[in-house]
Predict the structure.
Amino acid sequence: MTSSAPRSASDDGALPAGKRVVVAAFGETPLDALEHHVSLADMPAPDAAALAPDEVLLSIKSCGVAWVDLLMMSGQYQHMASPPYCPGMEYSGVVVATGAAVDAARAAVGDAVFSDFILAGPRAGGRYQSSGGFASYAVLPAAAVRRVPAGFSFDEACNLLGNYETAWHCLIARGRLQAGETVLITGASGASGMAAVQVAKLLGATVIATGRSDAKLAVVRAHGADHVINTANADGTPGVRRFRDEVKALTGGRGVDVVFDAVGGDTSLECLRCVAFGARFLIVGWTSTPFVARGRGQRGAPNANQLPTNLIQMKGLSVLGSPAVISVAENPAIRPPRVAQIMQWVAEGRIRPHISHAFPLVEFKRAMLARWNGEVIGGCVLHP
Ligand SMILES: NC(=O)c1ccc[n+]([C@@H]2O[C@H](COP(=O)([O-])OP(=O)(O)OC[C@H]3O[C@@H](n4cnc5c(N)ncnc54)[C@H](OP(=O)(O)O)[C@@H]3O)[C@@H](O)[C@H]2O)c1
């Protein structure tokens, strides 16, 4: 089509108005933000005629509810969106209009697509940062949409890039995980953890997965983990029990070659005692100690995690910071091969996100609490 006017599914009639979640200000914590600063607001009917030539208008069908979406609401995540903004880093939906210059091969009205969280939404910079996926509609640049892979649902498509890029960056780019090695994955029932289990198995590694719930770990095992260890105290008291003996027993007394640590705190400490000499310890995140930075976006790191230099020294460890997005900002060339590998695995049917929870948009608070309270296995989504 060569017309210079935007193309729309509703040229004969306006699109209906919708709803969007708005973070009006940072909270002291994510829960404080959820209680006092986050609400569901009306969203005016989008105007397809107002699209810039390179923009796409989506009717959102599904949006991932991520741990990072919560941490961003108190400004305690390393990347801050500026309130007011709409949360929801990754979403999927149907194209309802395109700008005049959008190549139909990229996105055409009626296409099922998903968003690239580094190019649009609250994890991105620039003008598309304020429009996340907890909404009926989103406007984003055509470069930030990809077709939903064949056989994938909208829910699966918006739980793909962030999680598997994290797994790829940590295990492959940083950890150099090899076939035949053993990797200990903490927080394995989480969004990143479930992806890491699948990627580690594709690489030919043996996976020992940890978590706090037998029921969740059963699902992790079904997704490929060779061994699972429940690290919760048997009497239900908070904290992490000693599990080094089990890991040593599973590795013939040697310890693991690689740790993928998404949990932090006491779990990290116990993992340091589970490793072989010369192991690689991958810092993924710290869900057990989320309040490292000050609340309300005041930055600083008064509660930073600390690792013991004695254990790192005696075990000859390599401790590797592994930020999947910051590393791309430093070197954009690392991203295309990792996305290409992930999309190839998808096409070959070798990876598929697991989604345990889905909620309508009006129940966004319940969805976010489910994520924060560790009820979710893999993905949690909102259906606007
Ligand atoms: N390196 C990167 O580039 C990158 C990218 C994305 C995310 N991250 C970070 O990685 C971490 C995990 O992210 P995610 O999206 O996978 O989160 P998630 O889906 O919420 O999963 C985290 C898992 O951690 C466990 N967990 C939660 N609270 C815990 C606690 N208090 N004590 C012990 N375990 C707890 C839970 O499993 P159990 O209930 O079974 O224990 C949960 O399934 C976060 O810190 C996030 O910021 C890093």
